[in-house]
Structure formats: C-alpha cells, structure tokens
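Chapter summary example.
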Amino acid sequence: MSATGVPQFRRLAVGGVLDGAAPALLPESADDHGPGRSPSGGGPARRPRADTDAVLVAAFDTVTVALRHGLEAVDILRLRRACGAVLQSRNGATVSFLVPPGTSATWHLPGSSCTAGAQLLPATDPRWVMPPAGADCAARPTDPWVLRSALCEAACTLTAGGLGPS
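The structure predicted for these 166 residues follows.
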C-alpha cells in the first residue's frame, strides 16, 4: 500500500509474467541463466523440465499467493465446496490456484499475481494441495470471483488474528 492507503499494483515484466510469479508452475531452465529465466533475461523459460512429467497447458491461468494466505483461502473455498485444483510451489512459499483461461487479463488483487497458462503435474505429485479429482483425474478450475472473495476473507481473517495476509 502507498502512503495514501491506495493499493499499488505490480507491473508485468517482459512476457506478461510478474517476476517470481508461480514458481511451481514455471519450468526451470537447464542453463546458467537461473531458474525459470530465458537466456535473454526477459520472460520465463517455457521449456519443460526433463525430470518431471509436467505438461504446459493454456487451458488454465494460475493465481499465486503466499502460502499462509493461500491455505486459509483453500479452507474457505472447501467449506463453500468451491475449491478447484491448487498446487504448492517447489520451495513451499506459495500456492497457485488454477482458474479459467483469460482470468489473467482482468485479475487485479494486491498480494496475488495471475499468469496465463499452467504447468500441470501428474495427479499423484505431492505438491498438489487440492489434486485433480474424478474418474479421469481432470483438474478443475476455481471460479475467479469466488476465489477473489475467499482471498479477501482470508486476508481479513489473518489480519484479525495478528498474522497479516502474507
């Protein structure tokens, strides 16, 4: 927040992705340019990692938030029976909610980032907080407006408990 109390939105980096956004969903490059960065230093590298069976798909966008904030939102969404697939990052610092494609074009919520596309992991991967379910193990997105409401409610709950949303 700025001094006037108006939230300041982070600007998109080259390639339409916020720096550090959705680390669990962006593949790491095998070169010396750092994890998830392209050789040009611009946007994230889009090469799949050789050691995973992950698939990069455009059928979903991802909303990424800090771990504590995201887990509180997952609890709220589960109580409402409205939680879709949710993934935890490799380093465990963030969670990413799968949302319908096109959400990234209109998503503006401080404390979160939304990126186009998602790297889906096998349903048996332990990083799934809410794994794909059903007979075909298909990932189900969370409604973006319901997610926004749950994230706001989670931030209020964490703030009231003295923990803050992040």
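To summarize the output: The longest strand covers residues 55-66.
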